[in-house]
Structures are given as structure tokens and as C-alpha cells.
């Protein structure tokens, strides 16, 4: 009888063990199945966009979505190719990504073309309405919301005028096919008119035009302004080289372009913008509705100064601005 009890106890223990193992196995499979997939589509290799992408990963992590552990990240870079944007967007749709993030306007537009259901978060889209991605920024009615990288244009123009009090003619150069750049040009033009600043506009179709068009511009202006423009940012060294040869300062809209040879700017911190984008994506993954997620804007820019470049061009930077850049922005010496 004792042996029978031992046998029953032993068999019961095995059954319990196998049942527990089976339950654990199925539980792990279920957990793995619940890990969401986020597709990130980036237009090209470019310092500002790289910072946004890194910020997105950090923002997701702050919401509890850790790459490779609690979220699967499918990161695709189109290398500036429109055909790649279409193919990569379709890839996300085919793999049933739970959420998609578009870094830049062209990337976001490509994502919008493949789905009207999957949530899409805009990362660095200057004018969501103008790009026809969102109709109501406060209460997005479809599947798209996000974060705008609209530059603080008034702060930027005021900075240029402060550093160049004798400025007579300001040039602006932008890519005609870049929605963000065109939008900023129109807004910047109005600001210049209000401040009685003579603005001369020059546009390019692609990076191959930059060398010749910039040389023409630099012969006719006292300083040059570059809006948020991915094409020019990717070929910034060409513009800087020509500007240095003409002894003309360049004031870009983006901090990374100051590091590449611009003089100074008040700009949206690209990494912080990416963090905002990632955190918004995290909230949507947790169940927040797109219609309850207004488009977000960065209200004030951080001051970035390239002191070395300013000295090269003979531009005096007030000590107060230098200290401000050291405390709350970036100072390149």
C-alpha cells in the first residue's frame, strides 16, 4: 500500500511538472507573440536625421519599449531614393507592423500611401497639414499624428540681424521639391518683409545644382540662410566651401549644419525631437488613440554657435550669447 502511495505521488508530481512546463512554454510563446513591431523609415544618411532616429529609440525605451526585448524595431534607410521609400513602406505593411514612424516628410508620405489603419507617427515633418498628412492637428481624424520640426524662424532671423547689424541683403537657398524647405521659405519671406530685410531666394532641384547655384547666390548677398532642407544638409560641405571662398557667413536652421560650418542658429534639438516622437509612439502602442494625440511642436530653439567659423569670417559673437550656448545649447570652438 505504501509503495502504491509513493507511485501515485511520483506520477502526480510528474504530471504537475509537465503541466507547469507546458504552461510556461505557451506563456513564453504568447509573450513573444505580443511584442509589437515598429517600422522606422528614414529618408537618408544625414547627421540631423541620425540624431532623430537615436532619439526615437530612446523615447520608446522611456515608455517601456526596449529594442530587441519588448519591441521589434525594423529600421530602414532609403538612402534618398524615392523607389526605396515605396518598397520599404510596403515591407512594413506586409509584415503587419503595429506602428510606423516616418523621419522626414517624404518618408511619412510614403507610409501614408500604404496604410490608412496602422498608426503612423511623423518625425520631423515641418508642415503636416501642408504635406496633406493631417487635416486637424489638434484632433487627427485618421491614423496619422506626430511631431513637427518647424524651426523657430523669428528667433533665427533676430539672431542673424544681431550678429550682422549692417546686413543689407540676405540670401536663402532651398530645394524646390522639399515640402518642409518650401514651407519655411514662405514663412521666412514674410518675416523678412516685416523686418524690412531684403531677401533673395535661390532654389535647387537636387544636390548636383548646389555648387553652381550657391556660387551665384554668394556673389550677391551679405549672408545666406538655409531652412530645414535634407538635400542641402547632405551636401553642406559644398555650400560651406563656396561660402568661405566668398567670405559670406551661412546661418542654417539646424544645429548639425552649424557644426558642419554654419555660424549660428536657434534650432530644434534633433535628438530631443526624436525622443518626443518615440514617446508618442510608445503611448500609441499602449492603446492611446490617434485622435486623442495632437501634433506636437517644439516652442523654442536651443542656441548653437560655431565660434571657430565666426572668427574665420570676422563675425563678433557677444559674450552673453557664448555663455548662453555653453549653458543651454552647443558651442563649437
UniProtKB/TrEMBL annotation:
Coiled coil: none
Superkingdom of the organism of origin: Bacteria
Pfam families, per database record: ABC_sub_bind
Protein name: ABC transporter substrate-binding protein
Amino acid at each position: 500500500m505504501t509503495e502504491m502511495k509513493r507511485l501515485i505521488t511520483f506520477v502526480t508530481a510528474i504530471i504537475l511538472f509537465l503541466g507547469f512546463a507546458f504552461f510556461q512554454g505557451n506563456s513564453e510563446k504568447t509573450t513573444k507573440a505580443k511584442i509589437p513591431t515598429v517600422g522606422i523609415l528614414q529618408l537618408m544618411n544625414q547627421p540631423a536625421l541620425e540624431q532623430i532616429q537615436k532619439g526615437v529609440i530612446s523615447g520608446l525605451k522611456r515608455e517601456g519599449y526596449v529594442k530587441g526585448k519588448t519591441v521589434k524595431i525594423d529600421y530602414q534607410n532609403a538612402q534618398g531614393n524615392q523607389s526605396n521609400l515605396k518598397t520599404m513602406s510596403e515591407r512594413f505593411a506586409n509584415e503587419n507592423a503595429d506602428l510606423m514612424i516616418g523621419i522626414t516628410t517624404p518618408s511619412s508620405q510614403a507610409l501614408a500611401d500604404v496604410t490608412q489603419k496602422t498608426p503612423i507617427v511623423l518625425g520631423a515633418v515641418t508642415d503636416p497639414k501642408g504635406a496633406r498628412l493631417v487635416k486637424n492637428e489638434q484632433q487627427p481624424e485618421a491614423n496619422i499624428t506626430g511631431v513637427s520640426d518647424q524651426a523657430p524662424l523669428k528667433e533665427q532671423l533676430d539672431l542673424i540681424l544681431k550678429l550682422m547689424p549692417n546686413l543689407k541683403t540676405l540670401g536663402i537657398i532651398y530645394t524646390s521639391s522639399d515640402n518642409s524647405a518650401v514651407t519655411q521659405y514662405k514663412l521666412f519671406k514674410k518675416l523678412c518683409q516685416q523686418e524690412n530685410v531684403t531677401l533673395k531666394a535661390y532654389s535647387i532641384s537636387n544636390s548636383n545644382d548646389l555648387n553652381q547655384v550657391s556660387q551665384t547666390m554668394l556673389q550677391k548677398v551679405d549672408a545666406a540662410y538655409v531652412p530645414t532642407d535634407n538635400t542641402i544638409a547632405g551636401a553642406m560641405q559644398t555650400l560651406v566651401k563656396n561660402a568661405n571662398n566668398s567670405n559670406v557667413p551661412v546661418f542654417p536652421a539646424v544645429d548639425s549644419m552649424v557644426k558642419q560650418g554654419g555660424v549660428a542658429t536657434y534650432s530644434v534639438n534633433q535628438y530631443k525631437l526624436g525622443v518626443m516622437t518615440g514617446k508618442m509612439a510608445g503611448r500609441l502602442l499602449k492603446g492611446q488613440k490617434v485622435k486623442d494625440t495632437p501634433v506636437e511642436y517644439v516652442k523654442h530653439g536651443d542656441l548653437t554657435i560655431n565660434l571657430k567659423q565666426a572668427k574665420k569670417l570676422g563675425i563678433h559673437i557677444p559674450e552673453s550669447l557664448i555663455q548662453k550656448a555653453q549653458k543651454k545649447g552647443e558651442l563649437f570652438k
